Each structure stands twice: as C-alpha cells, then as structure tokens.
Amino acid sequence: MKGGTLQINWHDTKPVLTLDFHPISGLLATAGADFDIKLWLIGSEEGDKKKVPSATYQNSLSYHGSAINAIRFAPSGELLASGADGGELILWKLHNTDSAHVWKVLKTLSFHRKDVLDLEWSTDGAFLISGSVDNSCIIWDVNKGSVHQILDGHFHYVQGVAWDPLNKYAASLSSDRTCRIYVKKPQSKAKGSERTDYVCQHVLAKVESQVVEETKAAKHHLFHDETLPSFFRRLSWSPDGSFLLVPAGSYKLSPTSEPVNTAYVMSRKDLSRPALMLPGASKAVVAVRFCPKAFGLRGLSTSSSFKLPYRLIFAVATLNSLYVYDTEGVEPIAVLAGLHYAAITDIAWSPTAKFLALSSQDGYCTLVEFENDELGIPVSFSGDKQVAADQNTMAVGNMASKEITEEIGKEKDIVNNASDTQEMETDKPREEPARPSLVTSTEKPNVKQASASTVSASKPAKRRITPMAID
Fold this sequence. Notes:
Layout lengths: L1 E5 L9 E6 L6 E5 L3 E8 L10 E9 L5 E6 L5 E6 L4 E8 L4 E8 L7 E6 L5 E6 L4 E5 L4 E6 L6 E6 L5 E6 L4 E12 L2 E12 L1 E3 L10 E3 L14 E2 L5 E9 L8 E8 L8 E6 L3 E11 L10 E2 L3 E8 L2 E6 L7 E4 L6 E6 L5 E6 L4 E5 L8 E2 L18 E2 L23 E3 L12 E2 L14 E3 L11 E2 L2
Parallel strand pairs: 1-35
Antiparallel strand pairs: 1-31, 2-3, 3-4, 4-5, 6-7, 7-8, 8-9, 10-11, 11-12, 12-13, 14-15, 15-16, 16-17, 18-19, 20-21, 21-22, 22-23, 23-37, 24-26, 24-32, 25-33, 26-27, 27-28, 29-30, 30-31, 34-36
C-alpha cells in the first residue's frame, strides 16, 4: 500500500466536497466549492514501489451555479448525477465520439428547495435517491426526469442516502439523529401498470445501553446531533446487500459513561437495530464506503464478527482519519491519519479496487494505491475465484452469532501492531506547515516534489478498539 495527499490545484484551492470513480473507465471525478466537476486520469508507477499515484487533469464539466456536494456515476457509466447548493440536481450523459468522450447536460431535476447533500443510484440505474437540507429525500424516475416519490419523515437535514443493491430497501441518515429504512412495496394499480413506492419500515433513533445499571432500562441516542461539524453523513450498503454501514454513531456503554464515536453495521436480516459497532475513533465518523469487489477468504482469523464465504472490505472516514476494515477480522487492516488539515468529505473506491480516494475541505485529495492482490484474490459473490466479480450473482451473508464481550476499557491497544494498523507519513518541510503526505501530479510541472510515503506503525494516540456486538 502506498499513497499520499496530492498537492495540486484540484478546485482552485477551494474545498473538495465529493468524488467518485467511473465504474468502467476508472476516471476520477471530483467536485466542490468552485462549482465545477473535474475528471482526472489516475496513474500508477508500476516500476517504483515507493512512487505514489498521479492524477492527470482531463476536462471540466461546467454548468452548476453553486457548490457541488455530491456526484455519483450510474452503474452503467453512461450517466452522472450531481447535486449542489440551492437544490440543483443535474444529470449528465456521456457522448462517445471518434476523438473524445464528452459529458453533456441531459436533464435538470427540479424539486428540492434547498441544498442537495447526497445521492445514490438504484442498481438498474432507473431511479435516483437524493437527500437535502429541506429535510426530505426524493426518489427520482430517471427516464421521465420527474419525482417518483417524496420521503419527508425527517425533521432535520438529510445528510446521507443509500440504495440497497438488491433493490428492496433504501436508507437515509439525518442530523435529526435518526436513520430511516424504507422497504419497497407495490401500490394500487393505475392505468394498467403497478406502481411501486417505498414505505418507512424502521426508524433507528435510540437503543438501550449494553450495561444496564440496576433495573433502569435507560436508552440513549445512536447518532450525533446537528452540532456534528460536517455537512455529510454518507452511509453505504455492501455490494452483496448483506450489510448496511452507518456513520455518525455516538454510543454509550452505560448511562453514566462517555459516548464513543462509532460506525454501526446493520445486518440485512434485522435492519431494526445495529448488529455491530466499530468504536474508538477520536473524531466523529462522517462517511463510509464499501469496496465494490469481493475477495477470497484468507483463513487467518477465527474471531470475525461476520459469516461470509468471501471477504468484503470497507473504508470508514472520520473528520480527520481513515480506517480500512475487512469482514474476516475484527481489527482495521490499515489506519491513515494526519493527511488533511480540514474535514474529510467523501470516499471512493476505483472499480478494480486498486485505488482508494478521499476528498477534504482543505482543498486537496488523498490517493491510496494497493498492490496487486494486496487486498486478496478477487472472487465472485458466490465465493468462486474470478477476474471480475459478477454483480448479478449476489448472495446475502449471515451475521455471526458470536458476541465480543470485553468492555471498551479492557480492550487491548492494537495500534502498535504494525501488521494490523498502518499510518502513512512523509517528511515535512520546515519552512512552512506542509501537508503530511504530498505527491506530484503530471498535470502541474511546478508542483513541489514530496518524499514518498512510508508505512509505519500507528501512533499510540490513534487508539483502536475491537468491534462489539450489540445486544
């Protein structure tokens, strides 16, 4: 694993608020407070193991008149959705010519009254869900370019939305401290066709403490309130639909204990409550994202809280750091810290899982590159080896029944184990406060040359805690 923060002119030094990889070409799209979407070709120096990835500017998509908060490519790669301040929501279409690939505005989706903060496509690309500062989620019919359904149950900003890859559920996360799970249900027939709407099935807001004092059944909030210093709470489904990963968690082991920052794992078998928590981050978790690939089991761990015939990998971003987990172990396989001076805003995996990208309000992005087979051997979602995972043969896994009973205060500090947790650092120039990891880009010849990132054990301050099952 190698990588670092690319000190190039991403968006005129303005905050980079969102990014996403094209599912076919692997181009990286970024967007932010300069109102533009930019496309970058991400390159790798195969011959030099210490050389960090490069980003080469390709072109810009200019149409928005305000800051862009969310961009997501459709699964087919033919469309791109972008949501911005003021309720702007635009669909772009890819036009292939003999000489170039050109993105042009296809439709403007108008209904949100205030800023659009997050987006997600349905697996078939026929629908789009958006979350907004107007407290609502909207499901859009992409072909018609119109509103299919408005989900207005939240009482504060909707900062994250997610669509089940098996096309049965949708989810939203709000600063009203609730996560809502919607299930697809057929409605009455109209004009000879059956309409399908989403109905709120679960509202996750509070849970009983794991350690109950005396006989009081004390309940506490699962999530941070609106004072969380982030515009985003981006949640994510696993690519097989087995799990929903939810950020912005704030969990109390007992009524008198201090809340712990965490992300929750929810099993598809029971979406009414969290099944697992990933505690221990010093800052609030603001975004999570599953890797699109599945990998073969390594058989190295017997303490996994998941039961799957393959390994899934996911990234958890706090305001200032990134943790990478897999479903076969209980400890993070990598920890990246000290990369940015301002809040992390979004995470994206490349379609081949070779690159992991982060965006930040400090105006820069971080790229992490994984060596061939470093994450494992890619397999299909049935557990068979393959070159490219077949997303049409998804299988739903089961949560393990095993419970991890140690309390947080008794958990061992694993950050000194370099084989399990890693932190990327680079030498910093003395004359000015420099970024912890800087790399050069082929776009800007005058960019500072930075020393290559090195992998070392995490600092003791970055304390990691074993995931815990929640009763």
